[in-house]
Write the structure tokens for this entry.
Amino acid sequence: MTVPILMYHDIVDGPEVRDEFEVPLARFCEHLDALAAAGWKTAPLSSLRTTGADARTVFLTFDDGFTSFGKMAVPALSARGFHATVFVPSGWVGKPAAWVETGGATPTVMSWPQLRGLDPDQVEVGGHGHSHVALDRLTDDELRAELTGGRRVLAEGIGRPPTLLAYPFGYHTAKVRRAAAEAGYSDACEVGYGLQPSPGARRYALRRLIVRPGMDGPALVRVLEEGQRGQLRQAVGSLLRPAWRVVRQWREPPVRLVPLPSGPDLSR
Ligand SMILES: [Zn+2]
């Protein structure tokens, strides 16, 4: 049975969005309320193989760990008893996300104190590489530094080792998937423009659905329900894929690696 794993990035205060990766807070709350009203519940993504087979379990994920996640998404999730997984690039913790080019203010990645302040029963923190670069472009040594090194930095900064990974920009190859397993990650997420085919499938390429700002609550619920009936490809697959292709052309900057620290500065 298919399992929906939703993918969000930045939540914004007002109604305006600068790109497809921002969702206004009001729209995000509308999504959560529509899911709850339709009988969907959430679970931590790390429990995918145990709870993912329950009908109407949806997994919420957020890439990049922007401060908007702690400020806006977490209170909205808490108010509804919902869980989420946030994927944080360890080299950018507490810093402006220089890889994001939206033409406006650069979002900032949450700090170590902010990450440690998240309730682990509600929010699990996963890895997102160290430098937020496309992992399929790296040498073996660079790949190890990004995944094994980045996971160590996150473990030291947060106080527990992350078990889940999301590939920056979604790109992965067999070599990248092997490196993710060797780094100690039990599962890794891609951007799959669709629903995860079953709880146990594709452990290092879990398929997620990008939730766009133009999708309202009823449309989101419809997508999940059509997906469970096997109709997702016809319904939205063709709408989702082209925008992500555009991203590889303009959103992904040249590879610029962030040096691994000997240990993270935990005050920042
Ligand atoms: Zn990212």
About this structure: The helical segments are 25-37, 48-51, 67-79, 112-116, 140-158, 174-182, 217-228, 232-250. Residues 234 and 258 are 41 Å apart (CA to CA). The chain has a mean pLDDT of 89. The first strand starts at residue 5 and ends at 8.
